[in-house]
Every structure is written in structure tokens, then in C-alpha cells.
Amino acid sequence: MVAHMADESIRILETFENPKQDRDYTIHVKIPEFTCLCPRTGQPDFATLHLDYVPDKLCVELKSLKLYMTSYRDLGSFHEAVTNIILNDLISTLEPRYMRLTAKFNVRGGIYTTVVAEHRAPGWNQPEPITLP
User: Across residues 76-96, what is the average pLDDT?
Assistant: First the structure.
């Protein structure tokens, strides 16, 4: 099993105050160059991550998010594990109303893997979508 310690200095997620805390709105972040290592072979695994969240009091600062994501480059982890670790770190930092992380891993051995992990804050309900005529 391959396991390297990530550089803790770049594992810090910085935040800023949500400028519109009284409104539910969605932030979508696409991370097309995510890389980690296969824990069995040590070979790189590449993915595009899609982060969608409804902030509460805090939003993630994007440069710190980029540095955080690069900290996984030399870390051996299964797709399911790394997706949930990232989601847990983001939840504990931001405490969002809602968050979904979709990790679409590139083909490996003829198999594509997509992992979707979600979080809903207790008591938060998604607003009803409005359909216009």
C-alpha cells in the first residue's frame, strides 16, 4: 500500500464571510486536475472534481482550495476514501447548508469510477424549484 503524508502547510482551507447569508445560492467549483495515487500500484489516478455547495456563514477561498487539492498528489488513497475525506474536511471548515462532491475519475483498466458524496445540515431543506411558463 502506498501512503505518503501530505504537506500539512498546504492542507489549510482558508475561508471568507458569505456576502449574502440570508439567501440560499449555489457555488459550483470545477477542479479538472485532481491527482492522487492508487494505493495498490502507486500509479497516478486523475479526476475532475465538481464541488457544489450552499454556503451558510463561510465560503472557501479558491487559492487555498487549489493548494489543498494538490496536497493529494502524492497520497495513496482509494477513490471512495479520498472523495469522502475531502468532503469531510470541507464540511468541518465551512459548515455549509448543503454540499455535494462529485469525483469523476479517468479510465483505469477499462473502468471509469464516479463517486458522489453529499451533506445536508440538520434542518436545512432544499427550496422548491421555480418553473417559469
Answer: 97
Task: Kindly list the catalytic residues.
Answer: 38, 45
- Could you read off the pLDDT of 10-40 as tens digits, one per residue? 578 999 999 999 999 999 999 999 999 999 9
**CA dihedral for 17, 123, 82, 89, sign (positive or negative):** positive
Whether residue 119 contacts residue 86, with contact meaning beta carbons closer than 8 Å, is answered with no
**Containing domain of residue 90, as a range?**
8-120
DSSP letters spanning 62-77: HHHHHHHHHTTTT-B-
Residue 103 within a domain: yes
Name residue 82's amino acid.
Answer: V
Residue 127 lies in a domain: no
For residue 18, give the CATH number of its domain. Answer: 3.30.1130.10
Q: Is residue 114 part of a domain?
A: yes
Task: Tell me phi and psi for residue 111, to 5 degrees.
Answer: -125, 130
What sign for the dihedral angle of Cα 44, 50, 55, 60?
positive
Measured distance CA(98)–CA(53) in Å, rounded? 5
